[in-house]
Design goal:
The complex is a heterotrimer of chains A (523), B (240) and C (326). Chain A is built from 17 helices and 15 strands. Chain A is an alpha+beta fold. Chain A folds into two domains: 3-104, no CATH class; 170-522, Cytochrome-c3 Hydrogenase, chain B (Orthogonal Bundle). Chain B has 240 residues and is mainly alpha-helical. The model of chain B is unreliable at 218-240 (pLDDT under 50). Chain B has one domain (2-217). Chain C is globular, with a radius of gyration of 20 Å. Mean pLDDT of chain C is 83; it is low at 249-270. The chains are: A alpha+beta (523), B mainly alpha (240), C mainly alpha (326). At the A-C interface, strand 8, helix 7 and helix 9 of A face helix 5 and helix 10 of C.
Amino acid sequence: MLLKIKANQLLNLEQIPLIHFYDFYNCILAMVENEEAQIVHYLGYLINGRKMLMIVMRTHKQSVGELHIGVTYAPTEYLSFTANHKMFQLFEREIFEEYQVKMLGHTQLKPLRNNFENYEFYSIAGENVHQVAVGPVHAGVIEPGHFRFNCMGERVAHLEIRLGYQHRGIEKLLLATPFTINRAAILIEAVAGDSAVVNALTFSEMMESALNLLDEKNEQGEKDEGEIENLKMIRTLALELERLSNHIGDLGALSGDVAFLAPAAYFGRMRGEFLNLLLLLSGNRFGKGLIRPANNYYTVTITDINQIEKKLDELNREIIHVSSLLFSTQEIIDRFEGVGVIDYQTALKLGVVGVAARASGVSYDVRKSFLPGYYYNLEQQNKNINTKNKNKNTSKNNGDVLARAETRYFEALDSIRLIKFLLESLRKKIDQQQMVKSKMDLKDVNKKVLPISSVVVAINEGWRGEISHLMITDNMGQIIRYKIKDPSFHNWPALALAMRDQEISDFPLCNKSFNLSYCGFDL
Amino acid sequence: MIDLQVGFLSLILLLNILTLGSSRLKILIKNVAVAGTLVSILPLLFSYPKIAAASVAFAAVMMLVKGFIIPGLLYFSIRKVSDPIEQVPIIGYHISVIIGIVFILLALLISSKLSLHHLPSSPTTLTRDLLFATAISTIFVGLFLLMTRWKAITQVLGYLIMENGIYLLGTIVVGHMPYILEVAVLLDLLVAVMIMGIVLLNINETFNDIDTSLLVARSGSGSRSGMESESGYSKDQQND
Amino acid sequence: MMRQLILLLIFIIISPLLYAIISRTKAFLVGKKGIPFLFNYYTLIKLFRKNVIYSKTITPIFKVAPIINLSAILLVLMFLPLGNLSPLLSFKGDVLFIFYLLTLGKIFMVLAGVDTGSSFEGMGCAREVFFSALGEIVLFLIFIMFYRLTNQLELSSYFVEGKLILHSKATLIPIIFISIALFVILLLENARVPVDDPLTHLELTMIHEVMILDYSGPDLGIIHLTSQLKMFFYAALISNLLMPVTSVMSIVPIIPVMPVTSGMFSVDVILPFSQLIVFTAILISVYVIVGVVESSMGRYQLKRVPKFVLSSLVLVVLATILTWRG
């Protein structure tokens, strides 16, 4: 009963069946229980003065992903999904906060982001139990977040995470003034600075399918397939570079947290080198401004390609070298092993995505399941990502800190392989002026009008996990809702669960092994 | 030569106590290898001015077997084991170490009451006492490991440590063991370890783990089934 | 007397410089340049110039604790022999007095940490007290062994003129074991890796730093100075222990150990100045070794630290066994 759609497909609101809430509810439950569906979006929106609920779910048939979308009128209250399926927890809290729909039976129905008054922490009563409250002001200069532990001595019985300190209201800001692509792109890149590339990419792919930009004909009346392909290749290059730099930075931070200073120093330096490669591509180290709908403002020359390739070869050797130091020191393995475990069943039930999911054995990667952007071509050429770990002696995928560290290491190596292949392909596309032509030069892109009454879902694999944007427009082409869903939205509850029955002094290690976004969550 | 003898003996004592306190199988095997090497060189030290070529050769063979071949065999057999860490034993690690120390003190007390005059070239009573104490405490540590640990590998290592202690005791009592006897003992040891290694591999294949407590509980059932995945998600199986 | 006072003052003044050696070694080993050697002095001067802020929930103990800690450690340093020269003060039983002084300083810091009412500072205090209790056992055993060997209860008598190693029956191997055990205690008491990471910003994993999170200004400067002096105390103990080894020729263990009382290398003939140079050299190498150990190890999980201390206990017991009967 939910409509099966493709990612980045422009849909008309009429196409989506408006079903009765009873059917909506039962259909979702059936999908979750029988087909192991996971949530991509679950949100409320207001159209013509009526509150509606929309859900986008994903299922997998032999590692090919499918999206299902459904819409219904929002009731004032209903029996919460969370009582039986924990993956709905934060989504329902968000809908409660924004649209005041009450979910009965949701034990933690509290506001999610604007939560500085009337927030009751879950507390355990007992003689030996004490509460430890950490943050939002921490001893080091890190992002603000409040962690409330209920501990018995040094063992954690329960952890509750309260965020929202960096809520900037980006979704409201996007709709505050008449929508222009340039302004929106800058705002969206600011959601989370370390995910600027993937957010911009998702936004651009969404706009391109909404406005049908890639079908534009140039002056000769032909579609320039070569330029479009170059555009996609450069975008994928930037995405993989971002992934690489963050994974390497994470490995360094993990070593620093256990006071193993040598790899911390080396990995830190290497992360800087990867960011410098992004600097070559886009003029700044975080790739901001590189990716825009149907436009690329930076040219890639042959010297850039040569430089990137040379650096990559060097850094590939260094990464393998330093990681072998990290993963063969027995004390460090002792620190990482068995800490912060999320097993396979829990990962599925909570809807964990990204590195954390793959480390627990849930092998879901958007690049393989939905083939966005250039990954489709890579799959055709059989060069897409490798989902099996090459080293069979390590990475047992049992969801502890060691598994997450090793997963990052293998993904980093895989990214390097992908980037090298992309560079080779780009080399073949060099034209006479020694650069790769990918500027579409659509000057009037800002004047385009969005289609009326439409819905687009764009999905991509950021370095943390699955990122998805959803856009709904009304019958005048104004955006009613632009929803940004960061992968951290799925994974924060996993961190809270991973800390149960662990030592409290292992919390920084667990936190760093997930490395979730505070500002991506807070929006 | 006092310092070297005392040094070797104290190193052996230290290694024994570290073995009591360690929970990682690879470290345990390394400890036993080093202790075996030291034990095989020790008789040479004690007969310092008059070292026969035969005893050097014998010491070399013994070092090879105890320090490299047998630990190598054990390393090979635990490569297939999924979990190279000992479970929490019946008597915990800290207490094991303290018991080991207490026993060394007891052994010293006992040895000071006995009078041993057979040892060639041991100028001080300290060395004589220390040798005796090391010998019986090594036997004790081996027995202790055999009794209180769960994994089959650690029990094999306990047996090896016991054999080291018996060899040391032999050095004291006889002073100069006939070589044929020692070679025979060594051969026995080698065969015993190989058999234990094979048994270990079989236990591991059947139960996917070398925890001997499983042998008691599961004496009827066959292999344990691994986790199956029912869904479209492919659960990455352990590829061995 | 004057000479010893001046010497002590010199060492007190250079202990921040020595402390910087650790950071420089760590930086060197990972390819960084590291802080300037005088960095700790700049920090101290900066802190002493600042204003102090007290929270509203504290009692006078909080204000008084840093001073008590500093005075305790200064008094302890007056009993420490430097480079085989006898110390300023010395009386029979001063070994126990030193212990109690060190513990007095520690207790006041723990009380001040609990005083702030913060839960993770309380956790840090609990860890600190637990680990110090373990370390004390080892230190006491070491001094009991020294007492058995020399029948003296004054700290100076163990190290002045190398009585311990030359005139008693202690030979090289027990000294090595005791030095390693003392080094472990140094790492424990001064909160270095692998017990605690002094550079960490994660307050849930800290032991020492979390107790002093609420201090500011001159109080914090006093605390920094105290920790540098404490490190100097433990390093000096180790250097004192290792010193007579160099004045006796028999580093190589093949040659049997005999007390050397005649000849050019007799202990009585070595000039105090050269002793001082040797002492300082060994002191600096202890600091360098701390830096090397810190760079090559990660820190242990907190529940593994008792095993670490247990290993030093084992070493001390073995050393006692080896020196049981000559």
